[in-house]
Amino acid sequence: MMVNYAVGSCLLRKGAGKPFEPFRKWILFFGVAFNVSLLCYFKYMNFFIENLNTLLGTDFNLASIILPLGVSFFTFAQITFVTDCYRMTIVQCNLLDYCTFSLFFPYVVSGPITRYGEIVPQLRASERRPVDWKNVSQGLYLLAIGLFKKIVLADSLAVWVANGFDKAAHLNFFEAWASSLCYTMQLYYDFSGYSDMAIGSALMLGISLPINFNSPYKSMNIQEFWRRWHISLSRFLRDYIYIPLGGSRRGEIGTYGNIFVTFLLAGLWHGSGWNFVIWGSLHACGLMVQRAWNKIGVVRLPRIVAWLITFNFINVCWVFFRAQTIGSAVRILRSMFFVNSIPLPAFLVQKFGFLHRTFIIAVKNPFKAIDGSYEMALILALSFPLILFFKNAHEAALDLRPTRVAICFIAVVILFSALEMGRLTQFLYVQF
After folding, report:
1. Ramachandran sector of residue 134 (left: φ over 0; alpha: ψ -120 to 50; beta: rest)
2. What is the pTM of this model?
3. What 3-state class would DSSP assign to 106?
4. 141 and 57 in one domain?
5. Is the torsion defined by CA of 374, 379, 384, 390 positive or negative?
6. Residue 360's beta-bridge partner residues?
7. Which of 230, 270, 283, 394 is catalytic?
8. What is the largest CA-CA distance in the chain?
9. Which of 31, 161, 412, 427 lies at a CB distance of 3.0 to 4.6 Å from 7, suitable for a disulfide?
10. Full residue range of the structural domain in which residue 347 is found
11. Radius of gyration of the chain (CA)
């Protein structure tokens, strides 16, 4: 924090004139390099050593590095700060405002990735205004919904996800699809739940944070998905990587190159492993294909077809994101798409007896390997209409009125979530 504040203060110096401009660029370079180097050390040093040992046949010892909580999020926030100081979009900065921005507890560990200019003016204004009870009620509602998403929905799905990805080599058709879909839903409920809790906590204090999720699984194409999923990260990638690289101003080949580099870095930001590199590369390829499709002007797909293609592409990409190894991801995908047999309960086998007997296997539980049940299938079945046809938490919060019914609803949701806190839960984004 002290280094970044010093860098920002130097970049905001007034009256230095044009002779100081080249030094400002070097100061900016130092500030960005300082933040990136810390992130690389804590997150990628062991990844680098492992690959170096594999490539050169060496035997360097892995460092015992403890990852600081929230390092991925607060590092990006500091990069936005020094960059905005260089661009002079920040007019002035004092130490107290800067420290409050850097340490504001709702977002420092799990986002959203905020900017100095969004937070500090609100902090100054909040000193002179009374408590806004509408903000308190909306914030409490978002906190309750976020807690429910994380504790009840995401952590319930986590059990089946862990079982499925730990037994990737032995999954049948239904188990592979159930594992991937459970993770797709778990990740959304988990991370959007954290964001809802962060935004709700801040709103109760009178601070509005940027929305981080806007019903991303309603997307009809991959570009729309990135406008709805982890919006603060998408905004960072656009404003601080893609556009500085040249954006779409360097011809088609240059644009495709910028897209690929941006999402390759996005993949690495999410984790230190080749599976994250593949995940980022797949999304880059998806965006490039969509751009080419739009440019050629081929026939427009029906909405249901566009949604199915988009959702299944995202679901396949999440398999690489979650799997511990690339081999594990490939085995799950093989079970999903290269079907040797379909296990069904005995009563369904009788109904589908017209199909070849060797293609259908009678089993008591088609989800046995992941300890799944029809309860799991029900949760998945209910998740789809919930995320596709209902308002998201932020839309519902805007319509919230502090009535007795609303108060009772919030109290029941918080109570139900609190009762579920006794079990062991997983902090899904621990690698951040």
Report:
1. alpha
2. 0.88
3. helix
4. no
5. positive
6. 342
7. 270
8. 85
9. 31
10. 133-422
11. 24
Residues 193/147, Cβ–Cβ less than 8 Å = yes
**In this structure, is residue 238 part of a structural domain?**
yes
Task: Mark whether 53 and 188 lie in a shared domain.
Answer: no
Residue 351: predicted pLDDT:
60
Identify the helix (H) or strand (E) that includes residue 342. strand 342-344
**Does 139 map to a domain?**
yes
Residues in the chain: 432
Strands 342-344 and 360-362, by their bridges, are parallel
**Is 112 domain-assigned?**
no
- Note whether 264 and 398 are same-domain residues: yes
Question: Alpha helices of 12-70 — where are they, by DSSP H?
Answer: 21-56
Say if residue 95 is in the same domain as residue 137.
no
Examine the domain organization and report whether 400 and 325 are in the same domain: yes
Give pLDDT tens digits for 372-421.
677 777 888 888 888 999 899 999 998 888 788 888 989 999 998 888 88
**Residue 394 a catalytic site member:** no
Residues 286 and 398 in one domain: yes
CA angle 328/333/336 to nearest 5° reads: 135
Residue of 187, 184, 200, 190 lying closest to 152 (CA atoms): 190
Given 86, 103, 120, the domain boundary residue is: 103
In a domain? residue 398: yes
pLDDT score at 80: 96
Please tell me whether residue 131 adopts helix, strand or coil conformation.
coil
